[in-house]
Specification:
Layout: E1 3-7, H1 11-21, E2 31-35, H2 38-46, E3 52-56, E4 67-69, E5 75-77, E6 83-87, E7 106-109, H3 115-123, E8 131-134, H4 137-145, E9 151-154, H5 158-161, E10 167-172, H6 173-181, E11 185-193, H7 199-215, H8 221-226, H9 233-243, H10 246-249, H11 252-268, H12 277-281
Parallel strand pairs: 1-2, 1-3, 7-8, 7-9
Antiparallel strand pairs: 3-11, 4-11, 5-11, 6-9, 6-10
Helix pairs in contact: 1-7
């Protein structure tokens, strides 16, 4: 019987899961794939909609009763954090958002349970913006450039393309997080539904899919580009190079420490429910 699998159409996810999706992983069951942005999968996972699913680490406090966190396949690393963007010609104003202060601003974000937004809330705790609007990711940069929003929170390939929109990075939240904690930044997690999938077996399938992706990058090229939403090939390559890294194969001690730090700080700030780290690590410890 096929397992239901959901992840984004972004190049890092299609690169990682190419072999598993195409039946190239020995011993793995067939999978029925859904492609969706992470804000959609975060919500769907709360309903137990998928057996294997890519979600935001920020959503884990609502999901770990029903899902195991897998130690591979996700997005976690250094130098890959979300950016807060403003218009390049936006002046510092006493009556509006300035270069280092978004109080009074309207900020567009890609989802209210994304890791990007959780990091933003931690960073802006003592200077929160006046209004937050959840906006489809592809509308954020054009909206900031057009002046509909004072700032926008972006992820993924926007790190490479925002100057085309005449935008400036107000802050790199990954740099902020790494400087403050010394830890990598946890972005996207892979979960296995409890009672439906053996987490150890699933981790083995995903690690083999990652191994094959690295061993023969050309094998997944057509699949990745088909789902890359008109992204240029060089941006696709930079995207994969940044988000598919040693933590994709195994979170390791540093990866789990980063997850615990993020969710612990967020819980202490009252932004997410308290979560026992044993829920995430029980079967891997």
């Amino acid at each position: 019987m096929a397992l239901s699998l959901a992840f984004s159409p972004c190049p890092n996810d299609t690169f990682v899961f190419h072999a598993l999706v195409h039946g190239l992983v020995p011993g793995a069951p067939p999978v029925d794939v859904t492609y969706a942005d992470v804000d959609v999968t975060n919500t769907a996972a709360e309903r137990g909609a998928f057996d294997l699913v890519k979600v935001s680490y920020a959503a884990l406090p609502w999901l770990l009763d029903d899902y195991h966190l897998l130690p591979c396949g996700g997005a976690l690393g250094r130098g890959c954090g979300p950016l807060v963007l403003t218009r390049g010609d936006q002046p510092d104003r006493p009556d509006g958002p300035g270069r280092a202060d978004l109080s009074g601003a309207t900020v567009a974000v890609p989802g209210d349970r994304t890791t990007a937004y959780l990091l933003f809330r931690l960073w802006a705790a003592d200077r929160p913006p006046a209004r937050i609007e959840v906006v489809p990711f592809h509308e954020i940069m054009p909206g900031v450039a057009a002046g509909r929003y004072d700032a926008g929170l972006v992820i993924h390939e926007a790190r490479f393309t925002y100057p085309r929109h005449g935008l400036t990075a107000l802050v790199d939240l990954g740099e902020w997080w790494e400087a403050d904690t010394g830890l990598p930044i946890p972005l996207g997690a892979i979960l296995a539904r409890r009672g439906a999938v053996d987490p150890e077996a699933a981790a083995g399938w995903i690690r083999e899919s990652v191994r094959q992706a690295w061993a023969d990058p050309a094998a997944s090229r057509e699949y990745v580009l088909t789902h890359a939403q008109e992204m240029e090939p060089d941006v696709v390559d930079r995207h994969i190079g940044l988000y598919v890294n040693e933590f994709t194969a195994d979170l390791g001690d540093a990866g789990f420490a980063a997850v615990e730090a993020l969710l612990g700080r967020a819980a202490d700030a009252g932004l997410v429910p308290q979560t026992s780290s044993s829920l995430a690590t029980a079967w891997t410890s």
